[in-house]
Amino acid sequence: MSTAVTERPGPTPATTVPMLEVKDLVVRYGRGRRAATAPAAVDRVSFSIAPGETVGLVGESGSGKSTIGKAILGLQKVSGGTINYQGRDITSATAAQRRDLGGELRAVFQDPNSSLNPRNTIGTSLAEPLRLRGIAAAEARVKAGDMLERVGLPREAVDRYPSQFSGGQRQRISVARALICDPQLVVCDEAVSALDLSTQAQVLNLLADLRDERGLSYLFIAHDIAVVQFLAQRVVVLYRGQVMESGPAAAVTGNPRHPFTQALVAASPVPRPAEQAARREARESLGVRTGAAAVPAPGGCPFRLRCPLATDLCATERPALRRVGTADVACHYA
Ligand SMILES: Nc1ncnc2c1ncn2[C@@H]1O[C@H](COP(=O)(O)OP(=O)(O)O)[C@@H](O)[C@H]1O
Ligand code: SF4
Ligand SMILES: [Mg+2]
Fold this sequence. Notes:
This protein has twelve helices and twelve strands.
């Protein structure tokens, strides 16, 4: 990503009650007895987000990132562990109970169509969360116009339809809709992944500006570690539903200790060909096998079938997260 040189990870927040605390989260898909025996899509994941902090969640496709986001938003049933939001246990809160959280917890997804109904005007889509909170139509329309201007679009956009905008503009509108009720935590799931590099940089800067203005917390989910690095103060690296490494963004992305994080950093696309070649060489010298290796049997390190350092111990014992430098790393040999 071309913007990695001007990262904007924001100030280190004062630690008070965490905005969000996820503890030993387990999610298994399937119903009834099948759910009990299904492999965990999310397997004992813990992290917290301080007020005003951005935590990046990164991993390959299928690693469980969206599942974690959905569990936090109440869109996916949790099989184990707890989710606390501003000190309140919301692990199994119903949809109505979550609505009572008001506009505090919102999301921006990769596909703007998931939050913008193509048959509704932008004004209707933006006003909807306000109307649900009892705000009168006229006032909601004014607020929608204000919010559109704030994300860099003209007020007149309220009368247009999503199809009349580019992908980048639609994503700005999704951001406007997510923020219109003044949330405190926003889950951004691959929010810029479908955009070209320069549009990606614009939307990332917009997210950073809004965070700095409003003291927002983000859970910023992406498969590209360079995109995550741009916004996040802390980074959590997932592999097959398990945390491989987590810690300050500078440590995890600048000096990765886990073989999988090292491979992710080496695989992250960079716009300069010379650097790309150097990265490719570094990646090859790591000896990490690419692609979907065979699914490892349960137990042991989930990364062992792709890991150049794997030993017999890695097949029998799941490595616990332990402190290495300033990060926590789940590897017997980090
Ligand atoms: N609705 C579902 N039903 C069954 N399995 C699912 C469902 N959604 C996701 N999964 C599985 O859960 C795992 C994690 O998926 P997901 O959270 O979407 O990963 P990511 O967002 O990191 O790509 C994958 O193995 C995926 O196949
Ligand atoms: S625990 Fe073993 S298999 Fe897992 S990352 Fe470390 S060395 Fe590789
Ligand atoms: Mg996903």
